[in-house]
Amino acid sequence: MQGPQIGFLPDGRRMHLHHGPIDMIVDVKGPGRAMALRRAASRFETLLDELVRDLPRLRQPSGDTPATAPALHMVAATAPFVPTFITPMAAVAGAGADTILEAICNGEGVTKAYVNNGGDIAFHLTGKQTVTAAVATHPAATVTVAADDATRGIATSGWRGRSHSLGIADSVTVLACNAAVADAAATLIANNVDLPDHVAITRIPATDHHPDSDLGTRLVTTAVRPLDPSDIATALAAGAAYAHTLCNRGLIHAAYISLQGATRVVGHLSLSQQKVPEHA
Predict the structure, then answer these.
(1) Which domains does the chain have, with CATH numbers?
(2) Residue 176 — very low, low, confident or very high, per pLDDT cuts 50/70/90?
(3) Strands in the chain per DSSP E
């Protein structure tokens, strides 16, 4: 495997950080931009090696305290969701984004910054700065977050995504205090959008995909055939109910849940900041 690759996209502005499975897009605004990007590049150099070092711990629901910063972010982000089954790996992409954002903001002159790690986004906002992100719903929509909002992380999960899901949501996008918490919450909400034992759903043990999966032999979704409207409503209701509990506990700010063209919106972000139609 090649070492860390650091460069810029063709627009000449956004930085591209790539190493193994990690693929990040970074941008910074403000008079401290140049130094902030240097800090991001320097921090990225060791990020994957640190995660690999702590993998045995991160694949377990509990265990020894990890030694590296991104792993500590992952453990902290997933701990509030226990006793629900979850391992720190549920927050790996979001924690990576948070770690690079911390480096960016560890200096003066940064008015706005974001780190997009494969769709899981950590961002920093000041003054009147805003960030607008795509929300994985049907039809496609966006949500805008302002500097005075509490949200600083957005993440998406679902059975069609990069990681494996125990549920059947096409996508769940979560807004939370940081990207690692959003990542973990999106994973668990997506797991709860489900129809156990339904004949239209195909599942296999996670270890059949990857022998070292943190999910062990738990059944992960590999296909969802077309569902009746009543089945879609039942699955979405289960996911929305769990998302409501997370909102009530203050763990997330909003969730956007999508399954076969139907959508549920849960949370406290003001409607003026949403462009998300809600479908039955």
Answers:
(1) 5-271 (3.10.520.10)
(2) very high
(3) 5-8, 15-19, 22-29, 112-117, 120-125, 130-135, 141-146, 153-157, 171-176, 201-205, 219-224, 254-259, 262-267
